[in-house]
Amino acid sequence: MLDSIDNHILQRLAQNSRISYTDLAKEVGLSGVAVKERIDKLVNQGIIEQFSIVVNAEKLGKKISAYLELEVEPAHLNTIVEELKANEQVAVLYEMTGACLLHVHILVEDMEQMERFMHKSIYALTGILRVENQILLKRHKNQDGLNI
């Protein structure tokens, strides 16, 4: 079970994973060494899986952010998952409850690249029964992880 100090540390790391141990220590009333030990423990327990950054894909030329819902035949699920995991345009891939539903988030430069992706990386796969496609218009909030 996490105490209030661990919860505070997790909240601050979720806001800014580059915050220093010294700054965190000042906030929670511990030494920098004690804060580092707590973070190491959270990592070792698997509570913190990774430290990451949020990249603005549009500023890197990826103007289209699309979400796909794929219904797949169960016999082909693992093959489809492996194909999509290997595709650099796939940013997120989740297996959801339902009829072997995969949730896929892709980032592409333009509609032409989107069309190529759909034809070569989705429609060409054996075992896909249904595809639903939505294009992101505007991001209002982006938060990975848990609000503590």
Could you walk me through the main structural features you see in this protein, from its secondary elements to its overall organization?
With 148 residues, the chain is α+β, with helices and mostly antiparallel strands. The chain has two domains: 4-44, Arc Repressor Mutant, subunit A (Orthogonal Bundle); 57-135, Alpha-Beta Plaits, CATH 3.30.70. 37% of the residues lie in helices and 22% in strands. It contains five helices and four strands, in the order αααβαββαβ. The protein has helices at 4-15, 21-28, 32-44, 77-85, 111-123; strands at residues 64-72, 90-96, 101-108, 128-135. Strands 2-3-1-4 form a four-stranded antiparallel β-sheet, covered by helices on one side. The radius of gyration is 20 Å and the shape is elongated. The mean pLDDT is 93.
Overall pLDDT confidence? 93
Query: Are there runs of 5+ residues with pLDDT below 50, and where?
Result: none
Please give the count of helices. Answer: 5
What shape does the CA trace take? elongated
Strand order, sheet with most strands: 2-3-1-4
- The computed structural class is alpha+beta
CATH class value of the largest domain: Alpha Beta
The whole-angstrom Rg is 20 Å
Pfam families: AsnC_trans_reg, HTH_AsnC-type
Keywords: DNA-binding, Transcription, Transcription regulation
Protein name: Lrp/AsnC family transcriptional regulator
How is the secondary structure organized here?
Blueprint: H1 4-15, H2 21-28, H3 32-44, E1 64-72, H4 77-85, E2 90-96, E3 101-108, H5 111-123, E4 128-135
Antiparallel strand pairs: 1-3, 1-4, 2-3
Helix pairs in contact: 2-3
